[in-house]
Design brief:
Layout: H1 16-24, H2 29-32, H3 34-40, H4 43-51, H5 56-59, E1 71-72, H6 73-80, H7 84-96, E2 100-105, E3 108-116, H8 118-140, H9 144-162
Antiparallel strand pairs: 1-3, 2-3
Length: about 160
């Protein structure tokens, strides 16, 4: 059943199951605190982020580039659900910090392709692995069907938050 808030209507009452789920969300907050994230970051990545005043929003670009295939700025914008100018600004700041490289697309000279700078690939992989440990441990305890359900629910939640 879709849940939307219409102006002028009283908020809906949550079921006990919904209260249980929504009660868990704030318990994840410490995982996203700046100090926790900072402490898990390898020194070269942390220093580049801090020196250049980069934020978690900039950091959200980086995992998109980990597969190794360069991405167009428009693809980064699509994946992050941000405007093309915003994606371009994020990539520009990361490029000035030396964390990413921008190159001309040989197939379309008007397109810019973005890739991770080689010097930051290993630190970023280490960081993502460290950040993923609690989630991966939790997934290890789930059956394949439960994993599929978790992924479906998380994907739906992300879609709702980003829309």
């Amino acid at each position: 059943m879709p849940h939307t808030h219409e102006s002028g209507k009283a908020p809906r009452m949550l079921t006990p199951g919904e209260l249980q789920v929504t009660g868990l969300v704030p318990l994840l907050e410490p995982f996203f605190r700046g100090a926790v994230v900072r402490d898990l970051m390898p020194a070269p990545l942390r220093e580049a982020m801090e020196t250049h005043g980069l934020t978690p929003r900039h950091g959200a670009v980086l995992p998109q580039l980990m597969a190794g295939q360069p991405l167009a700025v428009s693809e980064i914008a699509r994946r992050l659900h941000v405007s093309l100018p915003t994606a371009s600004e994020l990539v520009g700041a990361l490029n000035r910090a030396g964390i990413v490289q921008r190159t001309e697309d040989p197939a379309n000279r008007r397109r810019v392709l973005v890739s991770l700078a080689d010097a930051y690939r290993a630190p970023l992989e280490t960081f993502v692995a460290r950040r993923s440990e609690p989630l991966l441990r939790a997934l290890d305890g789930l059956s394949p069907g439960e994993r599929d359900g978790f992924l479906a629910g998380l994907t739906a939640w992300v879609r709702e938050v980003q829309s």
